Amino acid sequence: MKYYSTNKQASEATLEEAVAKGLAADKGLFMPYAIKPLPQEFYDSIDTLSFQEIAYRVADAFFGEDVPADTLKQIVYDTLSFDVPLVQMTENIYSLELFHGPTLAFKDVGGRFMARLLGYFIKKEGKKRVNVLVATSGDTGSAVANGLLGVEGIHVYVLYPKGKVSEIQEKQFTTLGQNITALEIDGTFDDCQALMKSAFMDKELNEHLQLTSANSINVARFLPQAFYYFYAYAQLKRAGKADNAVICVPSGNFGNITAGLFGKRMGLPVKRFIASNNRNDIFYQYLQTGVYTPRPSIATIANAMDVGDPSNFARVLDLYGGSHEAISADISGATYNDEQIAETMKEIWKNEHYLLDPHGACGFRALQEGLKPDETGVFLETAHPAKFKDTVEKIIGEAVEIPEKLQAFMRGEKKSLPMSKDFADFKKYLMEI
Length: 433
Ligand SMILES: *Cc1c(COP(=O)(O)O)cnc(C)c1O
Known about the structure:
With 433 residues, the protein is an alpha/beta fold.
């Protein structure tokens, strides 16, 4: 399958090129030319299939023309070595727990899938080293670094904002060593993202190095997240609750929800989506006004959603032909400040004995407030609450147990390279590799 750029000024790319470049030459995001609907028979029997079986059918629709069937199947099955359970919380609200992977965040699936796909292409082509840049507001760095750890032919540079990620998050990508280098940027997440984008646009740098991105701008990172939506639907169907399904996604860069919108385009019977924002509510404002106005991000307790200019907004626009009306018909918005997020976490812990993380709390609350009586809501619980231990403990006034997987990271020694937010410094560093 060929990929075009959302800016329509770059030449088309193969899957391999799209994955190895990340961003198109005109700064646009790659989009597949076709989004193939899956047959009715698949939806009729989806509740009898496993997560891996469902995911393979979805992956085949996107990548089947470019990757041999047995290889693709292996990539999907290796990626999904953990479950994504649907947990009923109230009569009509379910939590899809996406945090049972190695770094306890939903980005594990995209990170692991991309690592395996890129690994396959590197091996097939005998390519020189691919340098993966990833800007992180906390969770992406760990998922991508752990996904790509030790993969031959790949080196990962994680750019993260100094002092703006939790200690646990930081430990998950600064303690790994091997082919992972952590760059501690004296700036915000937006600065990290801007550095990365500038690097892709720099001609000299790209002649010197093969650079790609492992952020959700990369098709191999964001598309596999569609698996979640199909599996959520399958589990709802099993529970006899699949009619009028509403999926609510705590959103930052909008990669996750965009994968869900692709799913809907493939025929997945989701009635509508809700994008839940923290105070960085650029998308929410867009829905209200029809005008997209990016602005500098502000720090919140749901820090993985502190994004001031969501990169996948370009894909959402493209998918709906730029129509605000069409976008608003499929997606509604919500926005919560830190006090509201904390209040929800506290209330749900007390009343339902379910511990939400700050991101999932935005998702839950939007359903609690916006669900109609005949609808069933699923929100994506995007990270394990222990990843935000200090925040969560302060809010609920109790100690939070740290899963062993996280404790293992905590025992590692942090190694990072401090760097300014000036592109000249970053470029100089990369030119010396
Ligand atoms: C990355 C992340 C989000 C936001 O996902 P996007 O795909 O960027 O919209 C939400 N919650 C958590 C915990 C995350 O790590």
